[in-house]
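Why run this: before we spend reagent on co-expression, it is cheaper to look at a predicted model of the complex and decide which construct boundaries make sense. The entries below are exactly what would go into the expression plan.
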Amino acid sequence: MNNEQDNHQHQTAPQLEVCLTPALIPLYKVENSIVVIIDIFRATTSICYGIENGAEAIIPVAEVEECAAYREKGLGYLLAAERNGEVVSGFDFGNSPFAYTPEKVNGKTVVLTTTNGTHALHLSRKAKRVVIGSFLNLTALCNWLRTQNENILLVCSGWKNNFNLEDTLFAGAVVDQLKDLQFKLDDPAIAANDLFQLGKEDITQYLKKTSHGERLKKLGIEKDIAFCLQIDLTTAIPVLEEEKLVKLSI
Amino acid sequence: MNNEQDNHQHQTAPQLEVCLTPALIPLYKVENSIVVIIDIFRATTSICYGIENGAEAIIPVAEVEECAAYREKGLGYLLAAERNGEVVSGFDFGNSPFAYTPEKVNGKTVVLTTTNGTHALHLSRKAKRVVIGSFLNLTALCNWLRTQNENILLVCSGWKNNFNLEDTLFAGAVVDQLKDLQFKLDDPAIAANDLFQLGKEDITQYLKKTSHGERLKKLGIEKDIAFCLQIDLTTAIPVLEEEKLVKLSI
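The model came back. Tokens follow.
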């Protein structure tokens, strides 16, 4: 193959990249990509479930105080915030996806407090589009991504700006579904896919060894974890519009 | 187990952590750890080989201009720098480990230009100790680390501040040798070890799929790559003293 052909191929093959933590987002050209935000335990899982169940919009905020400020706006927002695994006093619910049932969220706007996820969203807002991924909407998300013919950047929200295994494993699940499309993969995408191959037979078991899983177990939210690892429970794809996450029209 | 025992155990089990890129070093308390700097292709491999072969010291610098400045000091430094895979004109050699033979480096001080590795070293200098790792000195390094009873942080120099597979795979090889010691592993350490398990039967083959391997291949340094993946060719452990890397006295 001569150089011209080589260059041509490089220009036309879209990239499928994985950003392992929000701290690394500045290394990517988000404006050239569709960004998928991933925060498996539990923000993006709750967002997918809430949008699937008819929430009009979900507004992610970083701090409990920002969330509380929506109370003043008096427009009937549902407020979600927790500290140390407990719903903060005066709020409607915490971060458990079980709260996002049709009975509670249908037609409502939910303000969700999520430090890691909001940080990732904020740093990705210049992307061509920002959508939300979780195991719940895995295949629906991948089917939509397949049709876009754009560079894709999977952003793991991680834990306190560092790598975590559950978000990376989900990124690997997306790479696994899209890798037949001849995307150019970066090293994190290759690693994420390899880790997914190791864990996919029993993701729950695989993630038990993580430090984060241990931490969440101490918070008594094993049921939430099991819920977050269900594959293809939903089909809605939440998309960022201005400050709000709403259902993507396909 | 009651809380007191739980806390006690937490305090006494040292941590074995992997920092996947220099951009994430600020997330760690390097001052509480022995840091191992990893830059497999090719800086830390060349450093291990050079120190093994009798170099009195190796001084890592980030820029070719810094390296050239040592010429003015007139003390018989060997200067190593390359750009685009070629030795920079006027320098003694490039970054190929093959240059670091006993004939060339014995008794000499080498000034080595390495952007990624120098960045990682600079950010780690407050550590209890900073040592250099590569596949060449893997077992010697691990045997020494075993005796230290300290927290260990394996710092991958990565590629332009981002994750690369070869440095992570080596970190996984270290975790593999030390994991019987009941270290507390963080998620990156767990992931690195899992990737090493996938790749260990044929590391060369495993790394062929990486983007970085492709880039290095284009530079025509396949022989260097093969050299860098030799396990336990050397036993010297380079350690940082002031600005210089010298042989650790054991």
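The mean pLDDT of chain B is 91. The interface with chain A takes residues 20-21, 23-24, 27, 159-165, 168, 184-188, 190-191, 194-195, 197-198, 209-212 of chain B (CB under 8 Å). Bring this page to Monday's planning discussion.
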